[in-house]
Amino acid sequence: MKKLSRDTIKYIAIAAMLLDHIALFFLDFYTFTGQVFHIVGRITAPIMCFFIAEGYFYTHDKKKYAIRLLIFALISQFPWSLLHDSSHISFNMILTLFFGLLAVHVEATVENKVGKIVLIALLCAVTYYCDWKVFAVLWCVGFYKFRQDNKRKFIWFSLVCAGYFIYVFSSNLAADTGIYHSLISSLYSLGTYLSIPLLLSYNGEKGKFKGSKWVFYIFYPLHLLIIAVVFYW
C-alpha cells in the first residue's frame, strides 16, 4: 500500500544524505558503520531526481522552479568548495538537479528525437564535474518519461544504477587497487536500489507542512557549512 507522502520520503532522503556526509568526512570508509552510512546515503540522489520530475510535472511556473534551483546551487557552492579539494573542479548536487530539470524540459518539449537525444546528451556532459554527474540527469529524464509506467520507469532506473556501479568499480580499478579490492570498495554504490521501495510507497500527496519545499533547499547548504566548520575545527 502506498503510504508515504512526498515530504516524508524527502525527509528520509535528507537524513540519509546527512549520514552519508558524516561517514564521508568523519568515518573510515572501510568500517562497518562507514559502509552502512554510505549504502543508506545512496538513496538520496535517486529520490531527489524523482521529485525533480514530479516537480516539473506539477509546477505552474517552470521558469521560477529552475531559477530557484540555480540560486540555491550557487549558494551551496561555497560550503561545497570548503569540503572538497580546491585543485579539482567540483560542483554540488543542486547544480546537477538544475541540469536534470533542463533535461526533463527537453524531454517534455522537444519533438525531434535526434535533437532531443543530442540536447540531453549535452546536458549530461555538462554535469561531468558535478556530484552525481550524468546519472542524476538520466534518472530525472527516465522518471519523467515513464512517469505513468512503473515497470519501464524502474527498468530504466535500474539500468542507470547498474551504470553507476560499473563507473564506481572501473574508477577504483583504474586506481590500481586490484579486482577484488575494487569490487569490495564499490559494493556500497548498489545502495541506490534501496530507493525503489520508498518510491513505490509514494502516495502522490505533498504532505501537511506548507513550507516543506524549502527544507531541502535550506538544509543542503546549511548542513555542508556546519560539517565544514566542525571538520576544520
Tell me what you see in this structure.
By secondary structure, the protein is mainly alpha-helical. The protein has one domain (6-232). 72% of the residues lie in helices and 0% in strands. The chain has helices at 6-26, 32-41, 44-58, 62-82, 93-109, 113-126, 135-145, 150-174, 179-186, 195-200, 213-232. Helix 1 runs parallel beside helix 11. The chain is globular and about 45 Å long. The mean pLDDT is 94.
- Rg value: 17 Å
- Run of helices and strands: HHHHHHHHHHH
- Percent range of helical residues: over 70%
- H/I helix tally: 11
How do the helices and strands line up, and which of them pair or pack?
Elements: H1 6-26, H2 32-41, H3 44-58, H4 62-82, H5 93-109, H6 113-126, H7 135-145, H8 150-174, H9 179-186, H10 195-200, H11 213-232
Helix pairs in contact: 1-2, 1-3, 1-11, 3-5, 3-7, 4-5, 4-11, 5-6, 5-7, 7-8, 8-9
A few lines on this structure:
With 233 residues, the chain is mainly α. Helix content is 72%, strand content 0%. Helix 3 (44-58) packs across helix 5 (93-109), helix 3 (44-58) packs across helix 7 and helix 4 packs parallel to helix 11 (213-232).
Keywords:
single chain; 233 residues; mainly alpha; 11 helices; 0% strand; globular
